[in-house]
Amino acid sequence: MILIIGGSYQGKTAYARENFPEYRYLNQLHLFVKKRLDEGKKPDDIMAEILEIIKEGDWAIISDEIGNGVVPLEPEDRRWREITGSILTALAKEAAEVHRVVCGIGQRIK
Amino acid sequence: MITLIYGGSSSGKSSYAEDYVCKLNFKNRYYLATMVAYDEESKERVKRHRNLRAGKDFVTLEHSVDITEAIPEILTVDSGDFSTDSSLPQEDIILLECMSNLVANEMFRDGQVFSSDYCLSKIIDDLKELHEKVSNIVIVTNNVFEDSTEYDEGTKDYLRALGKINQRISAIADEVYEVVVGIAIPVKEKGRML
């Protein structure tokens, strides 16, 4: 599995298409996580669901980094970004490669 | 040696910082905790961090403001240490976690709001004093700078203080890392910008 992260509108998807054209994509993972948290799912179950999806074949997971701002006022927003951060950190450990995209330019960090 | 470790919320920066300190061969590891646990959420956070560093041999010092008050405590622990194991360097290392809380606590203290300029010079002075006693300090700080909301003046002044402090520390640091999804990206190594 390849993990591609970066801020919003940095060209992550285009970078994925260019560099990993044969891969299947799980895109906008941060929104995938948010939807499930809103449905009341637990972080461990969300992680299990992600791992189940990517079980077969070559996958590139793409996600915004959402933890680089002021601490949000709403508890559910704080929870969302913390859980997204820890899921991404766990996925980065599993990933064969991790790429970070800034201004359309990807840097392989693992 | 000063090391600055920078990262966003839940980026794995604390875990990285602890591993970084534990890999170094220092006799006394001090964990200088700056967060005040004022509600359930922050108590949970303190608990999570305590679990994270359990078994890693840190002496925890808690100072939410005036970090120089840690000096007499460190001297007390050091003077009580009669170990003759000479294989370890007789030196201390402090892991300060984290600068973003310290700045908030210094800025909003005693029912008052202090300016970013005041907080900047106060915290840098305190750090220098601490550094005179303990030459090895690893500082964890927060990336809170990359969102898109226009904040009120108070929040902006806080961001200004933390941003300037991060810059001042990175200027004198030997090493600076940005931690992203648990991976440390070197920004400065051996005193040299990368």
Residue ranges of chain B: pLDDT <50 for 5 or more in a row?
Answer: none
Cα radius of gyration of chain A in angstroms: 14 Å
Of all protein chain pairs, which has the greatest interface, and how many residues does each chain bring to it? Answer: A-B, 27 and 21 residues
CATH architecture of chain A: 3-Layer(aba) Sandwich
Task: Give a short summary of the structure.
The complex is a heterodimer of chains A (110) and B (194). With 110 residues, chain A is α/β, with parallel strands linked by helices.
Which terms would index this structure?
heterodimer; A: 110 residues; alpha/beta; Rossmann fold; 5 strands; 45% helix; B: 194 residues; 8-stranded mixed β-sheet; 8 strands; globular
Describe the structure in your own words.
The complex is a heterodimer of chains A (110) and B (194). With 110 residues, chain A is of the alpha/beta class. Chain A has a single domain, classed as P-loop containing nucleotide triphosphate hydrolases (Rossmann fold). Chain A has helices spanning 12-19, 29-38, 43-53, 75-94, and strands spanning 2-6, 24-26, 59-64, 97-102, 105-108. In chain A, strands 2-3-1-4-5 form a five-stranded mixed sheet, sandwiched between helices. In chain A, helix 2 crosses helix 4 (75-94). In chain B, 42% of the residues lie in helices and 23% in strands. The longest helix of chain B has 20 residues, at 153-172. Chain B contains six helices and eight strands, in the order βαβαβαβααβαβββ. In chain B, helix 4 (99-107) packs across helix 5, helix 4 (99-107) packs across helix 6 and helix 5 (116-133) runs parallel beside helix 6 (153-172). With 194 residues, chain B is an alpha/beta fold. Chain B has one domain (2-80, 88-179): Rossmann fold (3-Layer(aba) Sandwich). Chain A binds chain B through residues 3, 5, 7, 65, 67-71, 75, 78, 81-86, 88-89, 91-93, 98, 100, 107, 109-110, and chain B through 8-12, 41, 143-149, 151, 155, 159, 180-183, 185.
